[in-house]
Amino acid sequence: xxxxLTSHAGLLAWVEESTRxxxxxxxxxxxxxxxxxxWLISTMVAAKGLIPLNHDEWPNCYLHRSNPNDVARVEDxxxxxxxxxxxxxxxxxWMAPDEAKKLLYSIFEGSMKGxxxxxxxxxxxxxxxxxxxxxxxxxxSAYVALSMRIMTRMGKIALETLGTEGAFVPGLHSTAELDxxxxxxxxxxxxKERLILSVNSGYGGNALLGKxxxxxxxxxxxxxDEGWLAEHMLILELEDPQGEKLYFTGAFxxxxxxxxxxxxxxxxxxxxxxxxxxxxxxxxxxxxxxLWAVNPEAGFFGVAPGTSEKTNPSAMETIRSNTLFTNVAxxxxxxxxxxxxxxxxxxxxxxxxxxxPGDDTAGGRFSQPNSRFTAPxxxxxxxxxxxxxxxxxxxxxxxxxxxxxxxxxxxxxxxSWEHGVFLGATMASQTTAAAGGAQGVLRRDPMAMLPFCGxxxxxxxxxxxxxxxxxPNPPKIFHVNWFQKDDEGNxxxxxYGENLRPLLWxxxxxxxxxxxxxxxIGTVPTxxxxxxxxxxxxxxxxxxxxxxxxxxxxxxxDAIAKHFETFGEKLPPALSAELEALRQRxx
Length: 587
Ligand code: GTP
Ligand code: SPV
Ligand code: MN
Prior knowledge:
Blueprint: H1 9-22, E1 26-29, H2 34-46, E2 51-52, E3 62-64, E4 78-80, H3 85-88, E5 93-94, H4 97-108, E6 116-124, E7 133-139, H5 142-151, E8 153-154, H6 156-162, E9 169-174, E10 184-188, E11 195-199, H7 204-207, H8 210-226, E12 229-231, E13 234-239, E14 245-251, H9 258-262, E15 272-277, E16 281-285, E17 291-294, E18 299-303, H10 313-318, E19 324-326, E20 329-331, E21 336-337, E22 347-349, E23 355-357, E24 372-376, E25 393-401, E26 411-413, H11 417-425, E27 428-430, E28 442-444, H12 457-470, E29 476-480, H13 500-510, E30 516-519, E31 522-525, H14 541-546, H15 550-565, H16 573-586
Parallel strand pairs: 1-6, 3-19, 4-5, 4-10, 7-9, 9-11, 14-25, 25-29
Antiparallel strand pairs: 2-3, 6-7, 6-8, 10-11, 12-16, 13-14, 13-15, 16-17, 17-25, 18-24, 19-24, 20-21, 20-22, 22-23, 26-29, 27-28, 30-31
Helix pairs in contact: 2-5, 11-12, 11-16, 15-16
Bound molecules: guanosine-5'-triphosphate (GTP), sulfopyruvate and manganese (II) ion.
């Protein structure tokens, strides 16, 4: 697009300033057109940045291999650059804004020499929704520009939305040298225009700035100021046999099942689950007093390993065309492949480009554990007709959940909004490959927002509590755990489609029916409270899945007390009161 197609003075000035700084060979304004996408693809294929897949089976699908040093979000190199360190709080890394700008601008200087600078205007949220927000990402990565076209409403439509005076969140991104020692993801929530700067990574949440940087870290700070919520949540629609619909959101940490739950294939033919969003929800109080959720994204950046016709047929259909695969393996026929998709063929080319026998398990995995697909949401067979409703959908239930071997039952209903906030604030989950660092380590990940809250987590808890007071008809809150294990390390619960059963119980509780028992930690289903028709679990497994173990919970209270110390004076008294009450009940 010719830059004369926008006369937004602020945008033109910032692009010019960034051009002077980064010194690209040329500047390309993205329109978002199909022709442009094909041009980007052919440029990347020629430069070996994309590998075409089997066109007959996987039309318009491509494989991208990232630098092996750049395969996940980098939490230890992600910074909230608020004026005061106290605003970033104890769970974020902080850098003084001036210092961060000086450091990052020195890396940006000349970083795009010989490269194309892409100006990527995008909307987070459906075009025309009063809640949508515009961002502009400047990047030297064609892969990022292509991905942003899938993940957001990108190009001309965003410039039209922006007009000549509109506000936008600027994000400057360069892959620079991909030097992990100089990799920084910085957010400036106190700036008037809420700047994002990202250097030396081209992967996922580090580089697609509309996603975690804008729609969660920056948006959570906006939401605090403006009285709404920006959350790491899936949104799903549950339709009963009479056609009545109910909407849930679910906050599970990275790689803990949001995409899979959002696309759940119903095990009961007369019940339907449809997808609204799989990763992020923007929630506001509607005029009717309910909480309404919008998915700000337009695509899915989903975990590939574990995705199959069996576990998630809906995702398999979504990714059949127009999809970018990153760091998956490839068969000799040019099909994408990953662990969990099905049997390995005779030969596979692994995510680093090495061709090995498919049974060479000693040589390590073929797909990177955080390998992903980037696919348009509209291709999802279970996408709800309401997924782009400008006002969003009304939420009746919020699910919190994590990956825990034990302690947390399959499903638990909170006693109140405050207790629900307590369950969210004390959530714990084993770390996954979605972020760099050790995996399988149990950590507290409040509301699945530990890496994504753009301000002090204590203030964030207070904001949740405050929201509860302001929502006349708040959703009911639940906690779920699909990931309990037996003594041999096998999952006790079959998960995936079977997760409909606890979801149906939650629905019954919302409707004021559903058999439940009060326990010291909340309410769980009675032994036959959940519909277990057609499910055959070994003797005693269901009891174990719903068990509330007093000794474990006495320990859990101590662990929660320690977790709460992190927040010092900013811990809302209502949460300490919940802990005290829990201790009393656990005895
Ligand atoms: P992010 O995109 O990182 O935020 O992840 P997510 O929360 O969307 O997780 P996703 O649905 O992609 O699942 C991550 C991994 O967990 C995949 O390998 C899934 O196959 C697996 N998984 C999802 N749901 C279940 C379940 O119910 N049971 C079991 N055992 N595994 C599951
Ligand atoms: C997550 O880690 O929660 C993701 C993937 O959804 S990324 O976009 O890389 O953050
Ligand atoms: Mn996520």
